[in-house]
Amino acid sequence: QVHLVESGGGSVQTGQSLRFSCLASGITAGGYCLAWFRQAPGKEREEVARIYVVGGTAYAMSVKGRFTASKDNFKNIMYLQMNSLKPEDTAMYYCAAPPTQYCRGDDFIYWGQGTQVTVSS
């Protein structure tokens, strides 16, 4: 059984930073594609970053250059470092995993419980 548990959310001011952690169990983070999504009230869920099996990354244009996804394969944790936060980054953030180790499109079936980020101006 795959479980993903996020931590690290909070309330910050514009320009500050936060780092999320996503602890994975039931899979090996180093051998799995993992992703971060967010959803703001009244808006559709948006993928913000993914990190592939071999470690390459992809980002949404809205966060590129400010967010960095990484994995600690020994601790089985995926991180999302978020810098230069803006009020529009306010959302619930989730980590997610696909049914198999490789990301294929938007097929994510395992989800964490979410962690809230609030950025005030």
Rg of Cα set: 13 Å
| Assembly level | single chain
Residue stretches low in confidence (pLDDT < 50, at least 5 long) are none
Average pLDDT rating: 93
Form type? globular
Give the CA-CA distance, first to last residue: 41 Å
Main beta-sheet strand count, sense and barrel state? 7 strands, mixed
Distinct helical segment count = 0
* Proportion in helices: under 10%
Number of β-strand runs: 11
Structural class: mainly beta
Strand content: over 45%
Please trace the helix and strand order, writing H or E for each element. Answer: EEEEEEEEEEE
Characterise the protein shown here:
- The protein is mainly beta and 121 residues long.
- It is 0% helix and 49% strand.
- The chain has no helices and 11 strands.
- The strands form 2 sheets. Strands 2, 4, 5, 6, 9, 10 and 11 form a 7-stranded mixed β-sheet that branches.
- The protein starts with a strand and ends with a strand.
Chart the SSEs and their pairings:
Blueprint lengths: L2 E5 L2 E4 L4 E8 L8 E6 L6 E6 L5 E3 L7 E6 L4 E6 L8 E7 L12 E2 L3 E6 L1
Parallel strand pairs: 2-11
Antiparallel strand pairs: 1-3, 3-8, 4-5, 4-9, 5-6, 7-8, 9-10, 9-11
